[in-house]
Specification:
CATH topology: TIM Barrel
Strand content: 15-25%
Number of domains: 1
CATH architecture: Alpha-Beta Barrel
Shape: globular
Bound molecules: SN-glycerol-3-phosphate, calcium ion
Largest sheet: 8 strands, parallel, barrel
Helix content: 25-40%
Radius of gyration: 18 Å
CATH superfamily: Phosphatidylinositol (PI) phosphodiesterase
Length: about 280
């Protein structure tokens, strides 16, 4: 009798190795690849002139030395900012000591705004398979343009129409079922992840929006509702959990058979998994 091989829990670097370098910078993603992360997570937004950039917040105020909404700025405006000049709230919440990521002058360019195109190039040049989990932010504001631009960009890299979901190194994540629906309508084999901050009564039985095969619950959901994770798994869905930084949470995810752990500390999680 043959047994299905137990899949390894995938380790996904959330906004890059974002505890070691400023989030969503080339520096953070290079570090995540060096650390051995299986995949990288990034948030994408559209600039005023239609470029997809990797920025989490609606505004650039928290993560750069500039001010204003990404959607009101052009790529050239963003390129003039330094996204390594500010420390993130997440960083200070999780560390007491002074950070040690003081950049050498020659590394400063690694902290300018990161376009999704540049991130796709980095992944293509990684020298090994590195997957990319792309989260569409506030897609309703742009009424489909984020997904349209995203798929056009993926097409340029030959990544928009994988032979099957299992083969795709790319997946698209969103809290918006409508955004995922737009992606699937244009590219049915591209895997999609429905992110969950809480479990609505409609989804309590482990159901996901039509066509979605991967659930993305927060670690808080996993801690408080382990039975829900079992229901998702029982319904045949994959489960990708964010943002898992504590060793006991890593252990809980492994115990529950979670498929991917999304973390700010990829190296620490890989160590915990014995990899
Ligand atoms: O990976 C999913 C997670 O990133 C969702 O939350 O706010 O960090 O984008 P957020
Ligand atoms: Ca995200």
């Amino acid at each position: 009798m043959t047994h299905a091989r137990q899949q390894l829990t995938q380790v996904v670097a959330h906004r890059g190795a974002s505890e070691d370098a400023p989030e969503h910078t080339l520096a953070a993603y290079r570090k995540a690849i060096e650390d051995g992360a299986d995949a990288l997570e990034c948030d994408v937004r559209l600039t005023a002139d239609g470029h997809l950039v990797c920025v989490h917040d609606r505004r650039v105020n928290r993560t750069s030395n500039g001010r204003g909404a990404v959607s009101a700025l052009e790529l050239a405006d963003l390129a003039a900012l330094d996204f390594g000049s500010r420390r993130t709230r997440e960083f200070w919440r999780t560390r007491d000591e002074e950070p040690d990521w003081v950049f050498r002058p020659e590394d400063r360019e690694d902290t300018s705004v990161l376009t999704l195109e540049r991130l796709l190039e980095l992944v293509a040049d990684a020298g090994r398979r590195v997957e990319l989990a792309i989260e569409t932010k506030h897609p309703t504001r742009w009424a489909g343009q984020v997904e349209e631009r995203l798929l056009a960009l993926l097409k340029r890299f030959g990544l928009d129409a994988p032979a099957s979901a299992a083969e795709s190194p790319i997946r698209v994540m969103s809290f918006s079922a409508r955004s995922l629906h737009r992606v699937r309508a244009a590219s049915p084999t591209l895997p999609t992840v429905y992110l969950l901050q809480f479990v609505s009564p409609r989804l309590r039985d482990g159901r996901l929006p039509a066509g979605v095969r991967i659930a993305g619950p927060s670690i808080r959901i996993v801690r408080n509702h382990p039975g829900y994770i079992e229901r998702l798994k029982g319904a045949g869905h994959q489960v990708h959990v964010w943002t898992v930084n504590e060793p006991e949470d890593v252990d809980l995810c492994v115990e529950l058979g979670v498929d991917a752990i999304i973390t700010n500390r990829p190296r620490a999680v890989l160590d915990r998994l014995g990899r």
